[in-house]
Amino acid sequence: MPDLRQQVKQLRLDRFATVIGLGGKEYRHAVESAFTGTNVELRFPFAGLPIGKAMQATKRAIQLRDPCGTIHEWFNQLRKHHFPFQSKTIPQNGIYILFQDGEAAHGTNRIVRVGTHTGDRQLRSRLRQHFVKENKDRSIFRKNIGRCLLNAKRDAFLECWNFDLTSRASREKHQHKVDFARQKEIEQQVTKYLQSHFSFVVFEVPDKIARLKLESRIISTVSLCDHCRPSPLWLGLSSPKQRIRESGLWLVNELYKTPLSNNDLASLQVLLKR
Fold first, then answer.
1. Three-point CA angle 248, 249, 253, nearest 5°
2. Which of 191, 220, 228, 231 could lock onto 105 through a cystine, CB 3.0 to 4.6 A?
3. What is the pLDDT of residues 45-91, one digit of tens each?
4. Could you give the number of structural domains in the chain?
5. What is the pTM (predicted TM-score) of this model?
6. Cα 54 to Cα 102: distance, rounded to the nearest angstrom
7. What is the rounded distance in angstroms from the CA atom of residue 46 to the CA atom of residue 183?
8. Domain identity same for 80 and 57
9. How far does Cα 153 stand from its chain's mean position?
10. β strands within the chain, DSSP E
11. Do both 144 and 177 map to the same domain?
12. Domain check: are 71 and 57 in the same one?
């Protein structure tokens, strides 16, 4: 029993709202004891079945593909884009999935970033903001890549790189501190890194609300997956942002929230077949 309690802590199973127990009555008692003192809701769908049927049902449940492995397989089968990419091959509204050289999970390319857009017909523009337009204040992805390049070298310019000069008030407060020739140099380094090390796939999602919901749940699914860990050489490990280092994703928002449900997966599969 102590070993089972230890596994609950090591695997951080107590962070989930609900845990499904795939076993019979005797197993249920052991699991309930292991989760004593947590707020986890335990469910045992096969506890009332005869041992033979319970074992069969448990086996079938275990054999089901996990959502993260499933979406990795699906996304890696889509057409991959590299820089330079043809804008006409990109839908106007949709979601993009990024892969990075040297990063793997589930036996294939690991998802390292998921993104979308809020404005109508802006997917192509959003991708250009990441890969082409050298303005880190219009792309948090670019800003985070730059942060890692600077932080890895303990470069003091990181403080200036963190300034957001979009607003007039911020420019008046900070722009006199910034060496803009140096900033341009870092922007160029970010562009070169992005264009050389990343590929992506896209799929169309016309409705804004559906896009944002699906984006969030894909991010959460990947961030909650124990198999999706960064390689020792992943640039993001140099990030000053703890959530990037810990998640293995170029993201700080929508992590560890609601993952994809079976219904979400079914809807996603329909979108990918369009």
1. 125
2. 228
3. 777 777 677 666 665 455 456 899 999 999 999 999 999 998 999 99
4. 2
5. 0.76
6. 42
7. 60
8. no
9. 26
10. 18-20, 41-43, 94-105, 108-115, 198-204
11. yes
12. no
